[in-house]
């Protein structure tokens, strides 16, 4: 029974990387705009349908469709920020929840209307391919997804750390008034942050299409895990999202095998509650960050 | 060549804080704006930098350019630097990053090195603390960092909101000498102060804001001897 452990750990880590990528957009939007985007899952789902149709109609590989879908969603995200998010940035929490939850319902129903409720999947030449290392089998699609996830996380962290606008974004979170006094156009950065947040969802959607089913409520099922990951890793922390993703991935895989498949989501939620009790700022979050950010 | 505030009416929402004030800051030297707590000094600076306070009538002109309806970030580009009251640094960023953000505006880009050298010549202390988190600096260091950050945008006009607040007398002296130095380098300084005696010593010209209006204005030396100022603000 124990010789399966390496296999379980590897599978858990691979899926965990994808969970991390799913969560980055959510944590970015929350960290920068202090908005919980309940529609984040629907952006993932739209990207999945995009990748599905690009593949079905023109045979475009899902990994290649990242380069088509991500810019489109980035633009769309900026537009949605202008129309839906900007008016509620300083509104009461309840209003914000209604707005993004409403957006989620609208997007789900659009998908349902256009494409129906069917479960679809993308079959590629490498769908069932896997690499064997020792007595561990690594599925090609999971490995690619994992690599893309870490590449994207690294890129975002480097952007926030070193680029001019990245620094301005971090500054804006710490003190919005002072950032404006530095000549930072906070409206533009809000748009940028939301656009980037949903663009990350789009990348996640594209790399999920070869692994997961595509259907109108796919986002709902995926985003629950992402919420757990974000709270575990620390709200607003990109590195935290990746670490949190790996932990949840491994925990779910181990529970699924050793205890029961039905319990694997329960364990994640138990972890979620424990974190809230013991370390509410999450593993890599900064205590008090939520207050700092409202300045 | 000046920053001119003309018949400015401004406030927050329905509350009018400034009822038609006029003041002018020349391109070089120090002008001070005095007044009791809640008189509207910070509001005046906010109106000039285009944040929080809203202007309902009047005009703000920078050497002929009308700033009145300009978005805040463009005003920085036009040459306004506002050093806010209460050391509003980016607490979780290093001193270096705080200074870098000071030169975020396009007008300062590519000049970072020169400006940084100039800022270090004024604040040698900051050079030693570049990698420290701004939030962990001492109060005086934070104030210096805030002023230094304001200078990083190569401003033509510097608005300073109570830079001496909460500082030890010796540090206040340092800060005041820095302000004289800045004003001597061809930057127009608008200094808001509670410490009236000190402000009148630095400034060439002074305005007193009372009950939403400018009630006294004149050369600083004249105000030092003005009976109303002596009674109300100097406690003489
Ligand atoms: N954001 C705001 N919203 C509503 N009212 C405000 C706001 N900021 C200031 N005020 C009010 O405007 C008036 C002027 O405030 P302001 O901050 O300009 O005074 P001040 O002269 O800078 O005082 P101090 O010396 O205490 O800093 C006060 O009555 C204050 O309560
Ligand atoms: Mg004030």
From TrEMBL, chain A:
<feature type="transmembrane region" description="Helical">
    <location>
        <begin position="12"/>
        <end position="36"/>
    </location>
</feature>
<keyword id="KW-0472">Membrane</keyword>
<dbReference type="InterPro" id="IPR052157">
    <property type="entry name" value="BCAA_transport_permease"/>
</dbReference>
<dbReference type="GO" id="GO:0005886">
    <property type="term" value="C:plasma membrane"/>
</dbReference>
<feature type="transmembrane region" description="Helical">
    <location>
        <begin position="257"/>
        <end position="278"/>
    </location>
</feature>
<protein>
    <submittedName>
        <fullName>Branched-chain amino acid ABC transporter permease</fullName>
    </submittedName>
</protein>
<keyword id="KW-0029">Amino-acid transport</keyword>
<feature type="transmembrane region" description="Helical">
    <location>
        <begin position="66"/>
        <end position="85"/>
    </location>
</feature>
<feature type="transmembrane region" description="Helical">
    <location>
        <begin position="43"/>
        <end position="60"/>
    </location>
</feature>
<feature type="transmembrane region" description="Helical">
    <location>
        <begin position="97"/>
        <end position="116"/>
    </location>
</feature>
<dbReference type="Pfam" id="PF02653">
    <property type="entry name" value="BPD_transp_2"/>
</dbReference>
<keyword id="KW-1133">Transmembrane helix</keyword>
<dbReference type="InterPro" id="IPR001851">
    <property type="entry name" value="ABC_transp_permease"/>
</dbReference>
<keyword id="KW-1003">Cell membrane</keyword>
<keyword id="KW-0812">Transmembrane</keyword>
<comment type="similarity">
    <text>Belongs to the binding-protein-dependent transport system permease family. LivHM subfamily.</text>
</comment>
<dbReference type="GO" id="GO:0006865">
    <property type="term" value="P:amino acid transport"/>
</dbReference>
<feature type="transmembrane region" description="Helical">
    <location>
        <begin position="192"/>
        <end position="212"/>
    </location>
</feature>
<feature type="transmembrane region" description="Helical">
    <location>
        <begin position="224"/>
        <end position="250"/>
    </location>
</feature>
<feature type="transmembrane region" description="Helical">
    <location>
        <begin position="136"/>
        <end position="160"/>
    </location>
</feature>
<dbReference type="GO" id="GO:0022857">
    <property type="term" value="F:transmembrane transporter activity"/>
</dbReference>
<keyword id="KW-0813">Transport</keyword>
From TrEMBL, chain B:
<dbReference type="GO" id="GO:0016887">
    <property type="term" value="F:ATP hydrolysis activity"/>
</dbReference>
<keyword id="KW-0813">Transport</keyword>
<dbReference type="InterPro" id="IPR027417">
    <property type="entry name" value="P-loop_NTPase"/>
</dbReference>
<dbReference type="InterPro" id="IPR003439">
    <property type="entry name" value="ABC_transporter-like_ATP-bd"/>
</dbReference>
<dbReference type="InterPro" id="IPR003593">
    <property type="entry name" value="AAA+_ATPase"/>
</dbReference>
<dbReference type="GO" id="GO:0015807">
    <property type="term" value="P:L-amino acid transport"/>
</dbReference>
<dbReference type="GO" id="GO:0005524">
    <property type="term" value="F:ATP binding"/>
</dbReference>
<dbReference type="InterPro" id="IPR052156">
    <property type="entry name" value="BCAA_Transport_ATP-bd_LivF"/>
</dbReference>
<keyword id="KW-0029">Amino-acid transport</keyword>
<dbReference type="GO" id="GO:0015658">
    <property type="term" value="F:branched-chain amino acid transmembrane transporter activity"/>
</dbReference>
<keyword id="KW-0547">Nucleotide-binding</keyword>
<dbReference type="Pfam" id="PF00005">
    <property type="entry name" value="ABC_tran"/>
</dbReference>
<comment type="similarity">
    <text>Belongs to the ABC transporter superfamily.</text>
</comment>
<keyword id="KW-0067">ATP-binding</keyword>
<protein>
    <submittedName>
        <fullName>ABC transporter ATP-binding protein</fullName>
    </submittedName>
</protein>
<feature type="domain" description="ABC transporter">
    <location>
        <begin position="3"/>
        <end position="236"/>
    </location>
</feature>
């Amino acid at each position: 029974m124990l010789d399966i452990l390496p296999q379980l750990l590897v599978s858990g880590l691979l899926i965990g990387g994808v969970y991390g990528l799913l969560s980055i957009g959510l944590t970015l939007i929350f960290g920068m705009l202090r908005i919980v985007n309940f529609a984040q899952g629907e952006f993932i789902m739209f990207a999945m349908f995009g990748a599905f149709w690009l593949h079905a109609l023109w045979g475009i590989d899902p990994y290649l469709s990242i380069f088509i879908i991500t810019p489109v969603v980035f633009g769309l995200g900026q537009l949605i920020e202008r129309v839906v998010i900007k008016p509620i940035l300083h509104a009461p929490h309840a209003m914000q929840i209604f707005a993004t939850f409403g957006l989620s319902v609208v997007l789900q129903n659009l998908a349902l209307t256009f494409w129906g409720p069917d479960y679809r999947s993308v079959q590629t030449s490498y769908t069932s391919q896997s690499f064997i290392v020792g007595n561990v089998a690594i599925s090609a699609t999971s490995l690619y997804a994992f690599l893309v996830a870490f590449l994207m996380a690294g890129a975002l962290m480097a952007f926030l750390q070193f680029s001019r606008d990245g620094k301005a974004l971090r500054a804006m979170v710490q003190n919005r008034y002072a950032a404006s006094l530095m000549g930072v156009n906070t409206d533009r950065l809000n748009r940028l942050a939301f656009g980037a947040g949903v663009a990350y969802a789009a990348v996640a959607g594209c790399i999920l299409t070869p692994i997961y089913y595509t259907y109108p409520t796919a986002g709902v099922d995926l985003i629950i895990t992402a919420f757990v990951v974000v709270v575990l890793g620390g709200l607003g922390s990109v590195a935290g999202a990746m670490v949190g993703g790996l932990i949840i991935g491994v925990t779910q895989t181990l529970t699924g095998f050793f205890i029961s498949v039905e319990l694997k989501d329960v364990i994640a939620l138990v972890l979620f509650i424990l974190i809230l009790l013991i370390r509410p700022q999450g593993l890599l979050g900064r205590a008090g960050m939520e207050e700092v950010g409202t300045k | 060549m000046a920053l001119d505030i003309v018949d400015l009416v401004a406030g927050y929402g329905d509350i009018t804080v400034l009822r038609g004030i006029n003041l002018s800051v020349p391109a070089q030297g120090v002008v001070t704006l005095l007044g009791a707590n809640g008189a509207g000094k910070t509001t005046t600076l906010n109106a000039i930098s285009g944040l929080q306070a809203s202007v309902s009538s009047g005009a703000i002109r920078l050497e002929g350019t009308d700033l009145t309806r300009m978005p805040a970030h463009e005003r920085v580009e036009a040459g306004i630097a506002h050093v806010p009251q209460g050391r509003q640094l980016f607490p979780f960023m290093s001193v270096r990053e705080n200074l870098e953000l000071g030169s975020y505006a396009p007008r300062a880009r590519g000049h970072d090195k020169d400006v940084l050298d100039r800022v270090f010549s004024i604040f040698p202390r900051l050079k030693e603390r570049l990698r420290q988190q701004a939030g962990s600096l001492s109060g005086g260091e934070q104030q210096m960092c805030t002023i230094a950050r304001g200078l990083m945008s190569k401003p033509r006009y510097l608005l300073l909101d109570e830079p001496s607040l909460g500082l030890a007398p010796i540090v206040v002296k340092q800060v005041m000498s820095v302000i004289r130095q800045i004003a001597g380098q061809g930057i127009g300084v608008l200094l808001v102060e509670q410490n009236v005696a000190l402000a009148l010593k630095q400034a060439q010209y002074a305005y007193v804001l009372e009950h939403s209006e400018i009630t006294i204005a004149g050369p600083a030396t004249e105000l030092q001897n003005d009976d109303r100022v002596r009674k109300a603000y100097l406690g003489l």
